[in-house]
Amino acid sequence: MADIELTGLSTVYPNGVRAVDGLDLSITDGEFFALLGPSGCGKTTLLRTIAGLEQSAEGTIVLGEKDVTRVDAGKRGVAMVFQDYALFPHMTVAQNISYPLRVRRASKQAQQDAATSTSAGLGLSELLERRPAQLSGGQQQRVALARAITMSAEVLLLDEPLSNLDARLRLEARTFLKRLQRDLGLTTVFVTHDQAEALALADRIAVMAEGRIRQLGTPKEVFQRPADTFVANFIGSTPMNLLTGTYRDGLVEVAGTRLAPPGDLTLTDGTPVVAGIRPEYLHPASDGITGTVSIVENLGVTSLVTLECPGEVLVGLTVPEQDEPAVGTTMTAAPAKGRLLVYDGETNQLV
Ligand code: ATP
């Protein structure tokens, strides 16, 4: 297994796009690491650069003890699973799984043994003689993983491995992937644009934008204390409420009220700020932001309420379904204790 050490890494396409831009990153041996970000932020390019499928323009890539920056893809000790799985359509499942050994000219017996043992662990034993076209999306994904495992690589790179699966299979595959990674202890980097997936699976997450890392942290850190308003907006199934306000006398003036930030902030009075309130931490209160109920979404056990407030819209206020307010009524809501985040209105960085 291996650490991954990226230093000053840039990847520039022939058209001049700097898809990865001076990036530093250390991934620990055995870690399950997510690259998360919106479309076009450079996640796939970074993964392909680590794999050696794109050449870096600047910087170094060290895997374990070895500088592989100029080493060919096939010799880096890296296995990559692509978004479309890239299985060989004319080969059976068994042949697909043992392919890396065939390339290395391993004996027929070794190839067969690898196919048998890897497929057993992945629930593919019954499918060894089928071809990829005769498999479901989830089964194809497992064959692609099995093939990657047969490579006995030190590093596993996964590019949106769950994106072709329907919602239910995706959930199953998540659990499966997490268990597999833990059992094998493989250093794994996976790319996703799905924040829920990254939060659920990863030991740590790098949130990317424009070829750079905006925030690096555990799922908890990234969810609870997004470093800037971009990350705040990107993470969370309902986006965070970001309200324009002013800091004065130790309080944040926002949407016609004054909210207390957790702890003392070293801001001067009159500083423009953005108040961040996660919908999950927003509750009905006697004192807080008052607004008119404009939308009520019934989710079964709970209902999500949208409030139109002075100059702002507050989304995701969660109330028990039986307490659902009528549209047009007035409600007051406030962040749970310690859950108000304050961002500098100019730099958009967490204060
Ligand atoms: P997605 O989630 O949509 O796959 P991504 O975060 O993986 O996006 P990349 O595919 O790495 O992003 O693309 C990063 C940037 O590089 C984008 O601006 C993209 O248009 C550009 N790009 C990607 N591939 C190439 C290429 N072969 N030639 C030129 N530009 C490219």
TrEMBL record:
GO CC terms: ATP-binding cassette (ABC) transporter complex, substrate-binding subunit-containing
Pfam family, one: TOBE_2
Residue span, ABC transporter domain: 4-235
A molecular function GO annotation: ATP binding
Entry-linked PROSITE patterns: ABC_TRANSPORTER_1 (PS00211), ABC_TRANSPORTER_2 (PS50893)
Keywords of this entry: ATP-binding, Nucleotide-binding, Transport
Name of the molecule in the record: Carbohydrate ABC transporter ATP-binding protein (CUT1 family)
